[in-house]
Amino acid sequence: MKTLRVETAEPYEILIEGGLLTELPEDLPRVINTRKLALITDETVKELITEDLARILEEAGFETKVFSFPAGEASKRMETVVELARSMVRAGFDRKCVVLGVGGGVVGDMAGFLASIYMRGVPYIQVPTTLLAQVDSSVGGKTGVDLPEGKNLLGTFYQPKRVYIDYGVLASLPWEQFRNGLAEVVKYGCIWDRRLFEFLENRSQLLFLYDPDTLEHIICESCRIKAEVVSQDEREAGLRRVLNFGHTLGHALEAALDYEILHGEAVSVGMVAAARLSEALGVAEEPVAERIEALLERLGLPVRFPKEVSAEKLLRFLASDKKVWHGRLTMVLLKRIGEFAFYENPPVEKIMEVLEKL
């Protein structure tokens, strides 16, 4: 088992191992002092994983109840959180309960948000079951829901007590969900660790086979990088914004398509756009876009904006992005693979030029 520590105001550990879910009954008492667990999940993961996990926990003496909602970004809204909270109240869950978020990024974001406001805050545990959630959204304490005006516009910073990453569950999920998470792994290589980027270039075929050693490596390295960043900047006052590479235009694309595109696919196109913008603005000290685009294509990820989405429409959604502070947009660009640069208020005409070519 690999263990990583996230040094936030309330530190916690990330445990990483294939088959880890069966060990939860033994480990949970080390971090929580209750046996009443609310398992928050979506209807897809409920059938694949959560019901089995609930049974394992119940056999070990925990009192569990599964609360689910329809899978997908469309459920990530305040109304769903209220419905879940009311169900928990009716089921007798008080301030002494613990919330377990079992699922992908949407589940983790909503479970964390629910835990942060339920009875003025109850502890929660992250049990990410998609690669995207395992390498990104389960670590760092960002929680929230979407508004029609944009993604994650309501939320809190609320750290979990523990993150359990069982990469053995990935093979049971659709390939598109696995590919979805690879975009975030590529991101870490782009902004922070050239060796991780090169590892992905050299091991892409093993990823398609769900090779355990390869999976463990990319998950551990991704979590290590995110933990390092979050430990230095828990509430996104500065450095943590580096994790937004590819997300500025990626979030705009998601909103423009009413969230009918996978997050990783949107980020993939957003990274290509950011890499091209890095070159167009002279920030890149070596060519970056072609190499990033080649790796993403090899991993089966999109590198072009859909034809039905205009550059003008994307720019409109950029205006409501959380990364616009005091009317100024800060974008994460690249000097080279593995080294980032913040760029404040890139010229609109340069952004348009890049978008129109994609």
From TrEMBL:
NAD(+) binds at residues 105-109, 129-130, 142, 151. It is an enzyme of class 4 (lyase). Zn(2+) binds at residues 184, 247, 263. Keywords: Amino-acid biosynthesis, Aromatic amino acid biosynthesis, Cobalt, Cytoplasm, Lyase, Metal-binding, NAD, Nucleotide-binding, Zinc. GO terms for molecular function: 3-dehydroquinate synthase activity; metal ion binding; nucleotide binding. Its EC number is 4.2.3.4. GO terms for cellular component: cytoplasm. It is found in: Cytoplasm. CDD domains: DHQS. Residues 68-179 form the 3-dehydroquinate synthase N-terminal domain. The keyword Metal-binding applies. Binds 1 divalent metal cation per subunit. Can use either Co(2+) or Zn(2+). One of its GO terms (biological process) is chorismate biosynthetic process. InterPro entries: Dehydroquinate_synthase, DHQ_synth_AroB, DHQ_synth_fam, DHQS/DOIS_N, DHQS_C. It catalyses: 7-phospho-2-dehydro-3-deoxy-D-arabino-heptonate = 3-dehydroquinate + phosphate. Pathway: Metabolic intermediate biosynthesis; chorismate biosynthesis; chorismate from D-erythrose 4-phosphate and phosphoenolpyruvate: step 2/7. Its cofactor is Co(2+); Zn(2+); NAD(+). Its main location: cytoplasm. HAMAP family: DHQ_synthase. Belongs to the sugar phosphate cyclases superfamily. Dehydroquinate synthase family. This is 3-dehydroquinate synthase. The lineage of its organism: Bacteria, Pseudomonadati, Thermodesulfobacteriota, Thermodesulfobacteria, Thermodesulfobacteriales. The gene is aroB.
